Amino acid sequence: NAGVMQNPRHLVRRRGQEARLRCSPMKGHSHVYWYRQLPEEGLKFMVYLQKENIIDESGMPKERFSAEFPKEGPSILRIQQVVRGDSAAYFCASRSGGSYSNQPQHFGDGTRLSIL
Amino acid sequence: DAKTTQPPSMDCAEGRAANLPCNHSTISGNEYVYWYRQIHSQGPQYIIHGLKNNETNEMASLIITEDRKSSTLILPHATLRDTAVYYCIVRVFYTGANSKLTFGKGITLSVRP
Fold first, then answer.
1. Residue of B nearest to A95 (CA)
2. Residue A101 has pLDDT above 80, yes or no
3. Whose CA is closest to B15, among B65, B69, B67, B81?
4. Less CB within 10 Å around the terminal CB: N or C of chain A?
């Protein structure tokens, strides 16, 4: 039973380029969360999605960041015009159950984004 | 969600039980206690969660006090691979749109040989 799969594991971009991070949730999980961990800091929530819907994006920076979870395929976190401050580990988590559920979130091993 | 308080660090000897405390004195009746850990450079790993009864699984036991204001995660036989940052998180279970996890600083457990 495969866990949450994130790719790539490491991504290097130059300032101004676009970064696309992919997350395939666990089988049967329809809820996806993205978190960011800046160097030497804790994990911070970014966005919560269900299939084709953004449920909570209160942690997303207002500009340059977007996320989607299409009906088919993985969830994508997209960062446009990256800057040095975007360098971080980005973690995806998924869970099963309905909208109102105590099922735990299960995390992938993250994408380490480095901006040159 | 209720705030949690954990000591910054602790250590224990390999093979002994590790008891990790967490205070959540403002917890509400509809809030669960979740424990995760993060081993260096890896994604957080779910350990266990509970509402008011004690819980046990293959990884750990969770003891919640009767007033629910604190809890203890117990790793019965700690190994070197249990060295990690452990996070205690309280979350309302019927959150709907607001089901994010709020991570604090956690407690760094060091298991010594």
1. B99
2. no
3. B81
4. N
pLDDT tens string A4-50: 999 999 999 999 999 999 999 999 899 999 999 998 888 999 999 99
Chain B hits for A102, Cβ within 8 Å: 32, 49, 51, 93
- The span from the CA of B98 to the CA of A57, in Å, is 10
The pLDDT tens digits of the residues spanning B9-31 come to: 999 999 999 999 999 999 988 88
Residue B81's CB is within 10 A of a number of other CB atoms, namely 9
Instruction: Report the C-alpha gap between A6 and B55 in whole angstroms.
Output: 30
Taking the C-alpha atoms of residue B69 and residue B6, their distance in angstroms, rounded to an integer, is: 13
Distance (Å) from the alpha carbon of B3 to chain A's nearest alpha carbon: 15
Question: Amino acid identity, residue A83?
Answer: V
Q: Which pair of tokens denotes residue A66?
A: 């977007």
CA B8 to chain centre: 13
The gap from C-alpha A48 to its chain's centroid, in whole angstroms, comes to 9
**β-pair partners for A97:** none
Distance of residue B16 Cα from the nearest chain A Cα, in angstroms: 28
Which pLDDT tens digit goes with each residue over B44-88? 999 999 999 899 999 999 999 999 999 999 999 999 999 999 999
For residue B106, what are its two tokens? 């956690």
For residue B100, the chain A residue with the least C-alpha distance is A45
Q: Reduce the DSSP state of residue A7 to 3 states and report it.
A: strand
Residue A101 to residue B49, Cβ atoms within 8 A:
no
